[in-house]
Design goal:
Length: about 130
């Protein structure tokens, strides 16, 4: 049974849309379902200040991406890399098992966005990359 939290994100997704000037971007393509998901992150002081996403995917991908982009606000990169959307889908969201791979894609896109930010901060201006 779907949780009230995930139902809320199904009915009214949050943080949908491209983020101009994102400090980190992570993109994935589902090998089986073909869902495409992009997560955008903006950092301030080394923590995630804003997160958004775009997707060409099913309702579960939209809902889990919406929820995860809310959860990660305020997290430092190591904390964000520990976020496991598939575990949330199983243990808290009540998503059916056939939708767990959608949540896995959300985690993968998030982790790629964090790693993208980490790479960028090593070579660029810390102020432009959300470090300072």
């Amino acid at each position: 049974m779907l949780s009230d939290e995930i139902k809320s994100h199904i009915v009214s997704p949050r943080n949908q849309g491209v983020m101009p000037g994102a400090h980190g971007v992570g993109e994935v393509l589902g090998p089986v379902c073909g869902d495409q998901l992009v997560v955008y992150l903006h950092f301030n002081g080394g923590r995630i200040k804003r997160a958004s996403f775009t997707t060409h995917g099913c309702w579960a991908a939209v809902a889990m991406a919406s929820w995860i982009t809310e959860i990660v606000k305020g997290l430092a990169p190591p904390e964000a890399l520990e976020v496991d959307a598939e575990a949330l889908a199983r243990e808290q969201a009540g998503l059916p098992e056939d939708k767990w791979p959608c949540a896995r894609l959300v985690s993968l896109a998030l982790h790629r966005a964090v790693r993208d930010w980490q790479r960028r901060q090593q070579v660029g201006d810390p102020k432009e990359n959300g470090v300072a």
